[in-house]
Amino acid sequence: MGEFLQKNYSLLIGLLEFIAAVTGLLVYKKFKLTNAKYFIWFLVYINVCEFIATYNSFIQDGKFLNFLKGTIIEKNYWWSTLFWKIGAIVFFAFYYNKILENKKFKKIINISTTGFIIFSVIYILSHWRAFFNTFFPIISVLGAIVIFLCTVFYFIELLNNDKLLIFYKSINFYISVAIFIWWFIITPIVFYDNYSAYKVGVYERDWAYIELRRYIYIFSNIFMYSTFVFALIFCEPEEDMLI
Description:
Layout: H1 2-7, H2 9-26, H3 28-31, H4 36-53, H5 77-99, H6 103-126, H7 128-131, H8 137-159, H9 171-186, H10 190-197, H11 207-234
Helix pairs in contact: 2-4, 2-11, 4-5, 5-6, 5-8, 6-8, 8-9, 9-11
């Protein structure tokens, strides 16, 4: 089982993302008049961006993107940083701005997200060459903080709302739980990725850590995307979310 998970790591994660997006499209009619439709669009966005990210596997000798070999975009770190580590944060800030009612909470999220974007742009420009060869832990951590703000504010509103009595019927509750736990588990890993797992040269690759990292990502993604699929299938659109 463990060997199977290790060998099919990328395939399994891609399959989970695909199942979640297809499920969202199948039930889109149910949520098309609610803010949840944006979340379904986001699931499709993830699949499209992940597909684009596979371009680096076609750069080897004899492949049709071989002409990119030796260029600054030979690796896909830059793309993953843009579409996930920054893009996903911007989406969730937008999404929670839609579903939250407290204006103060919305303002804090807007300010935090704007600050996050400005910092990310400045940091990338000042570390331009590294942008194409590695991930930036600081961007991941700041992005996680924005996610935590969004979800915590949602939980606070839920606790102070009559909706608490039927929270288990809300798709936003499951989305919030899933992304909060996922970012809580994954964020600490970014500190080791650059300095332990993939160092080559002075340090040998820590294969034991790489295997552990893959297990963490696989099971975290299984939890997150399974929660998304469950919520999309079993939750009903909320009347006050109609837009």
